[in-house]
């Protein structure tokens, strides 16, 4: 499920006619864009929106049905989302599972669906020669789902959705607290009262006849719009849409829901308990609906209050008073009404009354005096850059989805220019006015989440209704069956594409620079990489690399931490630092016009960090509280427990990025400075830049900012192999948990392995794709999980192989049994030809779609540097994938997938899951704590 916030930007300059409309208070602005689209309506009412963009040989297909929880009948909450799942079942002409197999095998990316309060969408990004395949699938779902819909499909998806609820609401820290906010803001009969997913009772209450009626009422072509954006010929595309959709019958007209939302006239307060350690406060107000007066002004107010380190709440609550761990504020814009939400997590030991009083003080200050002009400028600049950065993507939540978004809410798919123009016009007086009008104390709901046992209503699944005698037989559908639809269309000629190679140069001090010129957008993405990450941590100080990276933004010789945050926001740029297993990095996103001054700041934080003592103590406290939050997340606990069990407590990879609480508390300023001095040297670094900057200009920029970086020898130590536990079963106890977070971990290989291509194909078939063996078994067939995935983590030295899932508690043992059965199946027999082709082509044909954005290209170039791969590596990768055989897949499965060397990590209710594990022959369980470590022995 996804929700939309106001102002999702999609401004592909190759698609737009630009008109310069400068604003009075921002002298240097990007011209307002006008989207070059064509909109027509078929005779059956289907709206068709086309956008031609030939940057890459890919096409995004995005369908919106104008139905969501806003349309649900009382007693059927969560139904729109359940039906979204049903749309991926069989249709008259496409057997169940075949559409996923064909689309993945064709190289589809961003292939999924989502439900929001006001709409449901389905989307795929495919190679341009596979457009007809995507249209064939979507049309058959629209026209012929009802013909073969049966109880078996409904029961399976009810199981899947209930597992989704357990994982994303009940098992997610603060999930039930956030759910309570909607309950506090809306009456029970309001469409927005329940979460989009509904309750267990809602999900289980759905009957097959309800599903059929919902489809017949809302899934007609006249209640849908389709956007096709990318490498298309418009005339041919219109003809294809007419062929596949034009003959589908209309449904009865659907009126947009008109719902009165009662105002909140006096403050409403609720306390909710959850399996968390840190208190959390949600404050919510009812605000104007999407694109109505006040909506955009409140989006700016949210940025001023909670938009990162330059915001008021961060500066006061997190930085100065250190009473909050995280803050956020958002204007969530919808069709019936919108909500403005402030969300703050307390530091450990802070009383929620103190936290609430501090939030109220900042709100009162903003109401009374309004924001400064510079605050508004910072907020507008940050929002606009965020808008611009999102436009690079065609599919998923990118361009095609935004055009559908504008089309539904404004009737104009090209509303983008007006949207940005309104943003630029927001003034300090506008912000003060909407804060006074809508964010009063008396008109809000306050939900406080406190540590404790949540109250959950998760009844067991009732016995499924008996299938009728007609089950499995085709029933009367809406549209006349057409035999030609039973055959998948053949792809067109394969489009040519050369994966980006980039250019490189090196400064005299040893700094490597990797560059890719992409003038499509006035944006530049940069990443300063240090080839030392968590694997370089000292044995007694796990987490040191991450702590060091985190300190870079906290002050330099000439800039304080607040100055860094304010300067970056004023430029409309984004700066972030962090560490992974093999590298640390500082990343930057900036408008092309502001790239040079933003690069000044990046260079300053890397070359001149001051490590002020006061800031070290602030970040120490922050990391301890991050660790506390990590303990609340079963999936995060499973990850760190797996690392500890596999690598061992003496190995730097045996911990998460945060390390341990004793290590965090014992790190000194000298430790941080020494790590920086040893590892942050030019010969151990690379600057990766992708975007609208040419090579000659970049050389001058880099030389002036990094040329004086003092030369030093790069560290060359690499950690040894794993020294983990001998136990094959590791358990972390979470009494009462309704699900079990599972990790299966075993030995893997390094990124430079010659078996890379064969391993990727093998893993795709096993658990790397949605249509993989593991996901088809545990999710689609048995309904044990919302999803399961597998993969190799290809480190610089051999990394692990991982299988990751969260399963229903009652099926923990059965899930582990099925996981090992599928692993053994990969070893025992070669992949059938069709499965091999699908897994191989899924990797091969999706490659162009993985280089859509500057960040995508930058990440690929960064991989070359970190793992010592040649600059032309991606040029040869397609041939390597194409050459993989079934014999090679079986060989690597036998070589690297040894079940006897795999460990099972289970985070859940120990008393309920251990009896299920005993018959599996995994031996005695090793019990670890919520930090993933063995409990300390007391003397």
From TrEMBL:
It comes from the Bacteria. Residues 208-383, 666-843 form the Peptidase M16 C-terminal domain. The keyword Protein biosynthesis does not apply. Residues 1-24 form the signal peptide. Keywords: Signal. Pfam families: Peptidase_M16, Peptidase_M16_C. Gene3D superfamilies: Metalloenzyme, LuxS/M16 peptidase-like. Residues 450-476, 920-939 are annotated as: Disordered. Residues 53-188, 513-629 form the Peptidase M16 N-terminal domain. Transmembrane segments: none annotated. InterPro entries: Metalloenz_LuxS/M16, MPP/UQCRC_Complex, Pept_M16_N, Peptidase_M16_C. Belongs to the peptidase M16 family. This is Insulinase family protein.
